[in-house]
Write a structure and sequence with these properties.
This protein is an all-alpha fold and 225 residues long. The protein has six helices and no strands.
Length: 225
């Protein structure tokens, strides 16, 4: 792939059935032979074997698991336990949606993609916290109203704020996608999808699950009396 300066290229090869060691040297030898009239300079070369690749995958998965656990703990401390569980479900939904689209488009899962997934998780959490904070406030001040009315009012009160935040963030991600070059293309693409998914999940995934959970918990409590 061509780098932004127009004079540099990045060559990436998937591991074949042969040995990994020496692949970069063989590629350089072929390039120097075929481009003898145009001398080239190799600025850097890296070979990632299956053991290193597996280790990177495990560390990336561990980072995602730790981040999800942190979400539960933070939201449970800030609000209540059920809010933490639902926020984790919504965040997992967002990450899974982005991963699904990446797989459908047959894109390679790189560390940049993993970085984008963690960024999406953080963005989704922030969006969800904004909605949850308004729900908690309205549950305190409007106790005589029906839960469905409180939830709807809470979402409507923060709708314009979250929509504008998402729109401005999308503009930044779109600029990265269009102008950031090939290196940032997949990262920006994952961000674009993640921001869209994270915005609607805070409205239409996290809040409805909280509503159903509270309604069912209240019904079960009344049945035990």
């Amino acid at each position: 792939q061509q780098i932004a300066d127009g004079r540099s290229v990045m060559i990436r090869l998937k591991r074949g059935t042969g040995e990994v060691a020496g692949t970069a040297d063989r590629v350089q030898a072929v390039l120097r032979k075929e481009l003898a009239s145009n001398p080239l300079t190799v600025e850097a070369s890296t070979e990632v074997g299956p053991a290193i690749g597996k280790e990177l995958q495990q560390k990336a998965l561990l980072a995602i698991v730790i981040s999800l656990a942190g979400i539960v703990i933070y939201i449970a401390w800030r609000f209540e336990f059920r809010f933490g569980v639902v926020a984790t479900i919504a965040t997992f939904h967002d990450v899974l949606a982005v991963l699904g689209i990446v797989f459908i488009l047959n894109k390679e899962i790189t560390l940049l993609i993993v970085t984008a997934l963690l960024t999406v998780a953080g963005y989704s959490l922030t969006d969800t916290v904004v909605v949850y904070d308004r729900i908690r406030e309205n549950l305190r001040t409007r106790r005589k109203e029906q839960l469905a009315d409180i939830m709807n009012a809470s979402i409507n009160q923060v709708l314009s704020r979250t929509a504008m935040t998402s729109f401005t963030t999308l503009l930044g991600a779109l600029a990265l996608f269009l102008l950031g070059g090939e290196v940032l293309h997949d990262f920006a693409f994952a961000l674009l999808i993640g921001i869209l998914v994270g915005t609607y999940s805070s409205w239409f995934v996290a809040s409805p699950i909280i509503y159903e959970w509270r309604v069912r918990a209240e019904a079960a409590r009344r049945a035990r009396r």
